[in-house]
Amino acid sequence: MAPHPLSALSLGETNLARDIVKDGYSDVVIQFRQILLHEPPKSQVTAFLDLEHAGKVTAETLRPERLALVTYDVIGGSKFPEYHESIIDLRERKRVGHEVVSADTHHGSLAIHEFETLVQVVQDSPLFQAKIQELALPEGFEVVVEPWPYGAPDAADGRKRLFQALIFARDTRSGNADSNFYAYPLPLIPVMDAHTKEIIRIEELATGGKGDPLTGKTHAARLLDHNAASEYVPELLPEGTRQDLKPLGVVQPDGPSFSVTDGNLIQWQKWSMRATFNSREGAVLHDIRYDGRSILYRLSMSDMTVPYADARPPFHRKQAFDFGDGGLGHCVNNLALGCDCLGVIKYFDGVLVGSDGTATETKNVICLHEQDNGIGWKHTNWRTGRAVVTRRRELVVQFIITLANYEYAFNFIFDQAAGITVESRATGIVSVVHIDEGKTSDYGNVVSPGVLAQNHQHVFCVRIDPAIDGHKNTVVQEESLPVRLDKRTNPNGNFYEIRKTEIATSAGLDAAPHNNRIFKIQNHSKTNPISGRPVGYKLTPPPTQLLLADPNCTQSRRALFARHHLWVTKYKDHELYAGGKYTLQSSLEVGGVADAAARNDDVLDQDLVLWSVFGLTHNPRVEDWPVMPVEIMQLHLTPADFFTRNPAIDVPSNKDLTSKQVMGDVTEAIACCKL
Amino acid sequence: MAPHPLSALSLGETNLARDIVKDGYSDVVIQFRQILLHEPPKSQVTAFLDLEHAGKVTAETLRPERLALVTYDVIGGSKFPEYHESIIDLRERKRVGHEVVSADTHHGSLAIHEFETLVQVVQDSPLFQAKIQELALPEGFEVVVEPWPYGAPDAADGRKRLFQALIFARDTRSGNADSNFYAYPLPLIPVMDAHTKEIIRIEELATGGKGDPLTGKTHAARLLDHNAASEYVPELLPEGTRQDLKPLGVVQPDGPSFSVTDGNLIQWQKWSMRATFNSREGAVLHDIRYDGRSILYRLSMSDMTVPYADARPPFHRKQAFDFGDGGLGHCVNNLALGCDCLGVIKYFDGVLVGSDGTATETKNVICLHEQDNGIGWKHTNWRTGRAVVTRRRELVVQFIITLANYEYAFNFIFDQAAGITVESRATGIVSVVHIDEGKTSDYGNVVSPGVLAQNHQHVFCVRIDPAIDGHKNTVVQEESLPVRLDKRTNPNGNFYEIRKTEIATSAGLDAAPHNNRIFKIQNHSKTNPISGRPVGYKLTPPPTQLLLADPNCTQSRRALFARHHLWVTKYKDHELYAGGKYTLQSSLEVGGVADAAARNDDVLDQDLVLWSVFGLTHNPRVEDWPVMPVEIMQLHLTPADFFTRNPAIDVPSNKDLTSKQVMGDVTEAIACCKL
């Protein structure tokens, strides 16, 4: 059977793409970075989907092309490796596109083997070993080399492909491999040339506090003497874990309410969608419909950036693009039953490639489950006393990534009232550097002795490719604005105006919660029969702080997407990444959403894309240490005159029979079953 | 045993207060409105709590005074009823305070018997019956009279005590008493004088659309002919309820993790607090501590206002203060097991009084339960692959009110990382008026034929009386602000400044999410030993839209509290209500938070109170009909350098053993137990 056009590449397809690429070369080494589905042109897919939803797909139906994007280095002769990208037609078994990307223009995304090399090269470096020697680590401490992308290059770096490492020490004396090394940051950042595999320098970090100079060594000879253990694995907690938390389980005796068929087709409570996984974006959802009506063509995490605000060089180079930089695939968590979710869980696997291009299955990278989120709707008739109350059941598609110290859980959440929530939970260990004893800093907060957690931001971009009852949509900004008392039009001063502004040209737009500014994605060719207004969905832009870095600095210029809360652009095939295709070691965002918006395309009644930007300015608290409690951010998409009534009005209001009531005083001695 | 000073009045105490009041009068009728605990002066309570938490309370301990506030009308002779308030000392069994509140100054809060009278008087009114006759209701329709507070009086109303009623028709032909009468609004508002119990006029409402005049009859002779049924009770849904939602239950086989002792002392996961219920504020929490350390002295919903924005008179008088107006007690839902919450639930009862002052128990008005809210914190060690993940368990104290058409669920939520969330869920049926066939309006949205849901706002105020490690606290505004690239201080442009501003004088303050503005409540006499910063809690003001009505109009002047997102005032005994003690039929907020702030009190290192204001500008969607899906609003209080690490770091990361995994395709035929 031909794969569905909205399915990710299989193991076999991935290996086939590898083979076709390799067949094109001889006498060189090919080192692979990523192999991804190159999604077919939307026009081909929508033609197919129209037939599919009409039940008219047969063996003869013309299917969209099936393409793979393969990115790889060609290493041969005396030349530096060359970075190539090929498009492989898997049905025709041939290369149909090819580009050599010069390092003078862009760097290819990072591959996990580069990080492995970095760790080894740093550890083997005599220069590094000498610097470590100088730090006079206490007995029993080992050195931990944590690989990081380099951030933006300085002028002196030229076009070299560079990586940096943060260095920590780990107390090995517990004999527990998971003792927390982040409690012992060392003030060194080695920098490696990825081509020569050489340490080209080791930056010695300032460790001072308020009023100290931005550069220069100030730390004590035995700098770790004032640091302290900061454990989080339960067996290393000095006082153990709390003992009074009783189990709380979720049971679904009749199984889940969702079905998963055809490999990736999810159906649940009138919703249908397809889920894929790829190493650039994680989980991606396609062809999202409710009750058979199209809502979104595609929903994905497009990119994010995490710039650090410590003014001392080289900390300006601590700026990750955790999606664009390329390490995401290997950073996705393999989710384990009963820890990451409750209830009945369906896991999806993904496909990753090693440096030799061989595809391997990575297990359980997406999980699917239902959750209860409190009351869904309720009304009590005051005349009869009759209460009707429903629970709000939600379907969650989740993936979680670990990026060295830090983790993000991304949830696409669907509810029975046809709402969509994109949720990001930030957790993990905040990024820290050494600080001298007794000092405090304007650049962060001391979260443990000798440990400065630097101020930073997380800015996410969610890409929303709408298809509100079709592909020709319009975005309308709506604000609720005060109106002066006026004898004729507002005699009692209570009226306020809803002002609507069509977004006519592609643009970056901002949140304005004081004006209750929301954006409606509407189909102007369809009218709600009840209200007479165009059918649509409402996007409420989270009014979070945008990028703080000086607009003229590199940190800011390479993340232009982070300058507005919402971008509206005209759809273009393969324009998926807000920060551009090449963020690794970029100095400027190229080919990202800012460039797309700058085309000044007409976006009235067009196939368009919305890019929602929101985030968290994270000035760490002591309570974020050693592992921070989740910070939850949410983006909401809700129907606005899309339906003719509350879509959840038909949710049954059955009593839940597993609930129990406890009477009188409740003491620890009372177990539930007795009540 | 003497009642705890932080316990609500018992049935016996309430009846005792009634008796003592009645004993003070003869030859008059006393009609009671409310009997509430008059909380003792904070100085007395804190002295007691200090002893209590030190384990030093004995039978001899001097206890705070035990007082009741009784509000009632004295009806006698030829005079109009007089509104009185008395303070009763329950231990001394005597009246210790008394005030006659003149209707020239304020109106006493409404009592449920006034609403009952209103319904009867309207129904009996020949004038009303004649107006109904004119409307030529279809066969089988009955008239529904819905009582409302009057809103603010117009100049012509003088100081009369007035009530208004919205009028609907109900299709009785289904024989189901719960058929939805809001689908048939009638354009009449009768107004009753509460003293004379007479209908003083009946307003005939404009029913036009865009461009139509603000007053004057335009509706068709048989105006309901274009309306349609809008049912929500399951047995009346034309197509029934959806059948594919499988049960999802929460099980706690070992019982809850909380204990409830001494009637109202809740202990859970290092938290302790006392819960009370009263008819003015609903659930109130007192003496909130974590791990024995004081955080809040008191937490409550202080007030809310719901102004409607339809410019046509008399809709400016649709403005409820659902707490201050006084009807709350009888509007609190009696929560039923398994519908309003899942899991193991503890219910608390409340005490209400009837017009004769007799106390009755109202069952299950507060519920207490635990809930799972996803991942609490997680980290995977990239070197070892070891993942440690905890769930986020929460404790929820909930009460729900129904105000005619509308409901609010208020949740005080506590998490294991020592965070507090105050959540409001708005649901129920939006308030509607009649609109002529085929018309649309600038004042709202047509949600069903002939039914205009008017634009409106919900503005809530949460009163937070902090006690961060003691009662002398300071509020510090913190903003993250951009800093220009500067060779010396910000050489790479990535630095941003955290600017701190102490709030020195009582004031109204605003959210500024573009500056990441947050407010820290700190104790400046205690320093976090790790960070060196004052211990504190962080309040993130929800940056929602404030009141839109013209500042010079009555709707706005009687809700001054809704003009700022956060008020900081100096604590004063019994200053509890943001909108003032008397909101019913007020023209101006008096004695509310604006007046408290205007004292210009020194609030540096003082006993202070924070009042957090947030809300929802609600321009109804068709999807809000007939019962709207919950709109969720949240206020967050989180520790900020209050603890020396993540307080949830000791939460166990046990696998949940009730979860199940489904393999391969999932189809409806697969029941969970087979998987």
Automatic annotation (TrEMBL), chains A, B:
SUPFAM superfamilies from the UniProt entry: Amine oxidase catalytic domain, Amine oxidase N-terminal region
Active site: D322, Y406
Any one of the GO BP annotations: amine metabolic process
The Copper amine oxidase catalytic domain, residue ranges: 250-649
CC cofactor: Cu cation
EC number: 1.4.3.-
PROSITE patterns the UniProt entry points to: COPPER_AMINE_OXID_1
One Gene Ontology term of the molecular function aspect: quinone binding
InterPro entries registered for this protein in UniProt: Cu_Am_ox_TPQ-bd (IPR049948), Cu_amine_oxidase (IPR000269), Cu_amine_oxidase_C (IPR015798), Cu_amine_oxidase_C_sf (IPR036460), Cu_amine_oxidase_N-reg (IPR016182), Cu_amine_oxidase_N2 (IPR015800), Cu_amine_oxidase_N3 (IPR015802)
Family: Belongs to the copper/topaquinone oxidase family.
Record-given protein name: Amine oxidase
